C-alpha cells in the first residue's frame, strides 16, 4: 500500500486541482448568469472536478473511470475505496462512490457518498441532483424538491432536475413544500 501511495503521489502527468480550484468560481458565475455556452462551462467545471488534488491520484481516477465505463463495478469499487482513503477531502471521489452505488441500487451508500461530496463541494450540482433523485425514490418529495432547487440554483440547465421539480410542483400543488 505504501508503494502505491508513493507511486500515485510522484507520478507525472496532470496538474493538481479539485473543488478548491480558483478557476471554478468564475465558471459558476458564468453558469448562473447565462454568460457563455453552458455546455462548455459545465464541461470545464467537470474537468476541474475530475482532476484530483494530488497529481499522482489522477492515475487512480482514470482507472476508476475506465472500470466504470467497462462495467467492472467490482474493480471500480476497490479503486474508489483506495481513492477515498487516500484523498477523503476530494469531493469527486465521493461522487464516484455515489454514482457506483446508484448503479448497484444501493441507495443508502449513494446517499451517504453524495452527502459527503456536498459537504466538501456545496456547488456540486450533479451530487445535489442525485440526492434529489434518491429522495424522490424514497418518497420524500419535499426533500427531493429542495435538492432539485439547490441544483438548479447552481446550474439552471439541468433538464432532469427541472422536469422533476416541475412535476413535483404540480403534484404538491396546494400542499406545503
Can you describe this structure?
The chain is an all-alpha fold and 177 residues long. The protein has one domain (24-171): Tetratricopeptide repeat domain (Serine Threonine Protein Phosphatase 5, Tetratricopeptide repeat, Alpha Horseshoe). 71% of the residues lie in helices and 0% in strands. The chain contains ten helices and no strands. It has helices at 2-10, 24-33, 38-50, 57-69, 73-86, 91-103, 107-120, 125-137, 141-154, 159-171. It is globular.
Number of strands: 0
The level of helicity is over 70%
Strand content bin: under 5%
The residue-averaged pLDDT reads 89
Largest sheet: none
Structural class, by secondary structure, is mainly alpha
The count of domains is 1
CATH architecture level-2 label: Alpha Horseshoe
> SSE order, as H and E?
HHHHHHHHHH
CATH homologous superfamily caption = Tetratricopeptide repeat domain
CATH class wording:
Mainly Alpha
SS element count, helices:
10
N-to-C span: 49 Å
Shape: globular
Rounded Rg: 17 Å
In short:
The chain is built from ten helices and no strands. The chain has helices at 2-10, 24-33, 38-50, 57-69, 73-86, 91-103, 107-120, 125-137, 141-154, 159-171.
Distinctive features:
mainly alpha, Serine Threonine Protein Phosphatase 5, Tetratricopeptide repeat, globular
Strand and helix layout:
Elements: H1 2-10, H2 24-33, H3 38-50, H4 57-69, H5 73-86, H6 91-103, H7 107-120, H8 125-137, H9 141-154, H10 159-171
Helix pairs in contact: 2-3, 4-5, 5-6, 6-7, 7-8, 8-9, 9-10
Amino acid at each position: 500500500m505504501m508503494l502505491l501511495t508513493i507511486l500515485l503521489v510522484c507520478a507525472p502527468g496532470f496538474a493538481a486541482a479539485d473543488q478548491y480550484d480558483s478557476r471554478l468560481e468564475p465558471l459558476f458565475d458564468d453558469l448562473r448568469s447565462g454568460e457563455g455556452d453552458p455546455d462548455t462551462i459545465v464541461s470545464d467545471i467537470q474537468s476541474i472536478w475530475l482532476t484530483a488534488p494530488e497529481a499522482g491520484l489522477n492515475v487512480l481516477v482514470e482507472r476508476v473511470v475506465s472500470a466504470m465505463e467497462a462495467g467492472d463495478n467490482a474493480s471500480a469499487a476497490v479503486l474508489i475505496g483506495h481513492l477515498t482513503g487516500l484523498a477523503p477531502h476530494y469531493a469527486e471521489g465521493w461522487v464516484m462512490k455515489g454514482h457506483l452505488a446508484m448503479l448497484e441500487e444501493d441507495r443508502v451508500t449513494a446517499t451517504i457518498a453524495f452527502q459527503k461530496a456536498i459537504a466538501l463541494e456545496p456547488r456540486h450540482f450533479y451530487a445535489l441532483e442525485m440526492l434529489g433523485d434518491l429522495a424522490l425514490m424514497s418518497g420524500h418529495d419535499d426533500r427531493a424538491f429542495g435538492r432539485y432547487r439547490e441544483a438548479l440554483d447552481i446550474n439552471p440547465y439541468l433538464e432532469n432536475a427541472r422536469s422533476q421539480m416541475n412535476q413535483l410542483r404540480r403534484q404538491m400543488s396546494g400542499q406545503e413544500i
